[in-house]
């Protein structure tokens, strides 16, 4: 019988540590971290993340500054605003909710965020630094995944990690982080031949493709560690890419959805805001 | 009997096309591309590349500006110089020979090169753009490798490509480029377990580890395409990572050393200077 890899509890423990740390900073009259959270319009579907991030920050005592901007904001106005936040000493981190409305150049605008405040790694320079192994903010979901894996005590070095999905915010950066931990890393995607055969080789399997339940036990090696990043709403229920009940017995560790990667992601935002590793 | 994948001839053909293009630009009194090539001191072992790049440029009619600087140059002086070259309209591309002397911060200085002139992709922002699939200069060696593979007509999409070696200038970017071509990509390195087993799965095998002759036919699947990026001098002779004579019969295509990737690398510098894909 495999083990549930419980992100909810791990995340709660990390948030407790952060609460205590902030409490201490307050007592010592030191600077408290703060988040500037930018959302544009209502069509991007990011209102949920925006609200969750703000509420998680406030619960641990991190200050938040919400910038809710009009759907039709001009590119230059937005860039000027981000530049002001870059200079603003009361702001430690900046998040921009994506996707942006179509008239705005996402890469250009995200890359205006100072890499010193880019707590979700949106700037392409942050991505380049991650890619090259330079010091930088690590995007929250990939960072949370590595912490989840490490929490099991399973050694990453030399192991074969297979990542399904190649998005810029999950699949590609998590592959780079696993490589930096000395795993052999295979990147698969919708165009991969022999997906089943390759997944079956994985000691560590990270699934981030947004196809509910596609990964069953036929894709999983005995005693593998399985991380499910899928979050599709099916019949009103948050559903992962992994068929948890089918996989949990063959894998050594499996993350549930919800309660696996999700809580780690928002918690890593707090970790980044506090400047922790 | 497999085929020699002849980079020397392919590169010569591309250089001929570029010569003709430059000739035409001259006749039409249009702007000729030019390279600013910076070398610092003599200890980095890059004098050979510096000379080769300049001579290849000059042969096709691309102008070169050599900046041979003192070993003990101050960081600020060098950064100011690069900023001047960024602004200089007579310069289309800038190359900085690496490694730099130890008192200089390589990442910081390389990232001063404007991404509009960063013809070898040294700036971390260029790396980030490559990583995210944004428009950018592609570093010369990885770009040359993709051109070599494509020259065979072998389809990349869906195939399993295995890259051995994870340097920032070859292994990591070539893995990203193969991924962008819809290959399934595995990144291996010195810490990988089961290297032989994984290599044996590769439809496309790219070897860039600098261990002369380590890859023999036991690592190669029948009819694979094998790219050898190794360039170690052994008994005065340039030697690849692949045991060519052992591998050539089992593989469908194998690059020789010398005459494979090497000539493509310098030629891709010309392609980048001309702004071609």
From TrEMBL, chains A, B:
Domain Tetrahydrofolate dehydrogenase/cyclohydrolase catalytic span(s) in chain numbering: 5-120
Hydrolase as UniProt keyword: yes
GO biological process, alphabetically ordered: L-histidine biosynthetic process; methionine biosynthetic process; purine nucleotide biosynthetic process; tetrahydrofolate interconversion
Every Tetrahydrofolate dehydrogenase/cyclohydrolase NAD(P)-binding domain range: 139-274
Pfam families reported in the protein's UniProt record: THF_DHG_CYH, THF_DHG_CYH_C
Catalytic activity: (6R)-5,10-methylene-5,6,7,8-tetrahydrofolate + NADP(+) = (6R)-5,10-methenyltetrahydrofolate + NADPH; (6R)-5,10-methenyltetrahydrofolate + H2O = (6R)-10-formyltetrahydrofolate + H(+)
Gene Ontology MF terms in the entry: methenyltetrahydrofolate cyclohydrolase activity; methylenetetrahydrofolate dehydrogenase (NADP+) activity
EC numbers on record: 1.5.1.5, 3.5.4.9
InterPro entries: Aminoacid_DH-like_N_sf, NAD(P)-bd_dom_sf, THF_DH/CycHdrlase, THF_DH/CycHdrlase_cat_dom, THF_DH/CycHdrlase_NAD-bd_dom
Superkingdom of origin organism: Bacteria
GO CC list: cytosol
SUPFAM superfamilies hit by this protein: Aminoacid dehydrogenase-like, N-terminal domain, NAD(P)-binding Rossmann-fold domains
Function text: Catalyzes the oxidation of 5,10-methylenetetrahydrofolate to 5,10-methenyltetrahydrofolate and then the hydrolysis of 5,10-methenyltetrahydrofolate to 10-formyltetrahydrofolate.
Subunit structure of this chain's protein: Homodimer.
Sequence similarity: Belongs to the tetrahydrofolate dehydrogenase/cyclohydrolase family.
Protein name: Bifunctional protein FolD
Originating species: Clostridium grantii DSM 8605
